[in-house]
Amino acid sequence: MSHEAAPPPLATAALLGRCPRCGKGALFRGLLDIRDTCDSCGLDLRAHDAGDGPAVAAIFVIGAATVGAALWVDVKFTPPLWLHAVLWPALVLPFSVLTMRVAKAALVALQWRHRRESP
Questions:
Q1: C-alpha pair distances (Å), 46 with each of 18, 43, 56, 81, 113
Q2: What is the pTM (predicted TM-score) of this model?
Q3: 16, part of any domain
Q4: Most exposed among 14, 19, 30, 91, judged by the fewest C-beta atoms under 10 Å?
Q5: Whole-angstrom Cα distance, residue 71 to residue 69?
Q6: What residue numbers bound the domain in which 38 lies?
Q7: What is the widest separation between alpha-carbon atoms in the chain?
Q8: Domain count, the chain
């Protein structure tokens, strides 16, 4: 019989980038690199791979929103081309990284929840 604490909610683990088992340790070593093990509970995270899912999420979600926003800005305000060249990369890059971090953390948490061994 296991007396482990309940894992954190998926939204908490994904949005805060926390360990899917304990919810305390940081999931990321850098900007987008998953740690080998949780520094709090020791969970081995090497087997959990998010693959290309987070990048695809960023491309579809941020890409579609950016194209729509760029078209709206162009029609509404008619800015010079250089402004588009400066504005959109400055907005897209941070939102893409944020989207990839949250998606990667969510996929790792879901993999852990569905792959862990039954007690």
A1: 15, 9, 22, 45, 15
A2: 0.85
A3: yes
A4: 30
A5: 5
A6: 10-114
A7: 67
A8: 1
Does residue 94 sit within a domain? yes
In a domain, 119, yes or no: no
Token pair for residue 57? 């999420």
What distance in Å separates the CA atoms of residue 41 and residue 16, rounded to the nearest whole number? 17
Residue 48 lies in a domain: yes
How would you write the pLDDT of the chain (119 residues) with one tens digit per residue?
455 678 899 999 999 999 999 999 999 999 999 999 999 999 999 988 888 989 998 899 999 999 999 999 999 999 999 999 999 999 999 999 999 999 999 999 999 999 865 44
Residue pair 24/87 in contact by the 8 Å Cβ criterion: no
